[in-house]
Design goal:
By secondary structure, the protein is α+β, with helices and mostly antiparallel strands. It has helices spanning 14-25, 55-65, 118-123, 125-134, 136-148, and strands spanning 29-33, 37-41, 47-52, 76-82, 88-93, 96-97, 162-165, 168-171. The chain is globular and about 50 Å long.
Amino acid sequence: MKSQPDGDTNYDSNSMKDVNAELHKGGWRLVGKGHYSNVFENPKYPYVLKVFVDENYKNWLNAVLKYQDNPYLPKIRGKFIKLNKEATAARIEKLQPLSGDMDPIFAQYVPDEVEPSLENFLYDDGAYYYQQKNFPELGQAFKLALKTRAPGRELDLNKSNFMKRGNTLVLTDPLG
């Protein structure tokens, strides 16, 4: 992936652009961006930096910190870092991206008779009951997302908000 020093989010602010430029100077490269955040990677460190400007996302991370033993939630390293008046960073474990909506990882989370896909993982009734029975901590992760979302905002459950740690699915950024 090509390094991008400007790497602004959909949230357009000069202070966020300044943070992105400073991180780029320090060897960090943009590897992902969303509505209210950017993700940076530096080969010198065993984690990524999630730089965000959304208070709702901070609430999500604070809740995740209370459940660091849940394998379906990202592991956070240390305390948050206030970068300027708008932007905060969190050090989060490096995870692997899904290979798409049909990533083989979904096969373990749906019954044999259901096609393993992101859509079926999320919306098939049989898969839901299968997950509740066999993966209760996964249900806990979804409930945490519902609990921490801001009033009036939907969950954002698409393949870019799931990653994997080995053979375990991880819910990284479920808030829209």
